[in-house]
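User: Can you write out an input/output pair for a complex, sequences first and structure second?

Assistant: Here is one pair. Inputs:
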Amino acid sequence: MIWNEPKETMSRDQMYELQSARLRKIVDRVYHNVPFYRKKMQELDLEPGDIKTIDDITKLPFTTKDDLRDNYPFGLFAVPKSEVVRVHASSGTTGKPTVVAYSRKDIDIFSEVVTRALACAGITKNDVVQVAFGYGLFTGGLGLHYGAEKLGAAVVPISGGNTVKQIQLLQDFGSTVLACTPSYAAHLAESLEEAGVDAKELPLRVGIFGAEPWTPEMKKKIEEGLGITAYDIYGLSEIIGPGVSISCEHQIGLHIAEDHFYPEIINPDTLERLPEGETGELVFTTITKEAMPLLRYRTRDISSLNYEKCICGRTNVRMSKIYGRTDDMLIIRGVNVYPSQVESVLLEIPEAKPHYQLIVDREGSLDTLEVQVEIDDKYFTDEIAQLSKINRKIKQKIENNLGISVILKLVEPKTLKRSEGKAKRVIDNRKL
Ligand code: DLL
């Protein structure tokens, strides 16, 4: 179902007009209300009047996560603090968290875009939505919560973790929708099996998964394990949270709520804007945000854009599934490696579980990559010869895919730490 037909099926010309009008307004607001942006624009010799259509967006300055940190906590607010009704924050691995703020209207838009996303995944007021994203400063829990409520569905706000309880509620409440990170969904599928519960017997039918990269192979595995159809929901706190985009039933890219979040793809090195279809760094401008609008925010996520009308009837631009982040990419002995490549390989090997960890180190001047992989219970044995054979097989497949040699370490079933939220796949000891 299309929740907001006028906004999700408007012609490209109408969208152009709408985005242009909204951009003019937001640029004027940040210029007058946010000293950081006024300074940046003045440095570029720009005035609000120079921005006439959405095409003029390329004249505007970029915003980075460092800019948010430098203005911690409230330096980028475009409204008085009294207009702020909620804040969220992302923890970040180093230093201070980044803070984002919402006015009442921002919160309404947040709910609206999540509602659109859930409707896009075929969810209706008759569904029971188990929200297993974390509630708190993270935007996942509350974001899905209010979107599902607005849709009229019954929300089960269990938050992340507590797997035994998750399983109990899936059974007792008959949840039809599960919302969580894909890594936690994979863990739940396994836990159900261990508990002797046949997931296919449960009323569960749809998964809303996101907040971290996951491969198409992982999607298939989770769909089979839980007996559901999985949808890919994308978003980031700086822009609003979940609901920036979602895949539809045709699963060819994720529809962006572009009447609120204007996307661009740039070359991360030259910062040049790339044409439709090319892969690069995704950049968003929040064209309706009140409390903390951001101009050309560099997400570090790698994607591409497709403006063709979708078979589902939506005209909103689609972004391709996120392959990884520019800062996820490891450079090992000069070769670019993404954790998702390892995931794809492991999911094709029956002896391996998709639970893995990459440990990067440096011996002398040489980088090393250790891949720790959990062996499937069914293949676990005390026989060293058998284990070495499996080890060689996995090592070779990974090396063929990555194009570099790796140290492969098989670990016993269930020894790698399971994530309840975003999985941490890489430990890079070179930075220590
Ligand atoms: O992860 C918001 C969210 C919550 C999205 C629940 C989806 C579901 P942050 O914590 O700020 O916000 O992290 C944002 O997570 O820049 C991506 O790198 C990654 N990410 C989010 N969704 C996806 C996805 C939330 N569907 C960062 N696929 C983003 C791949 C994703 N990566």
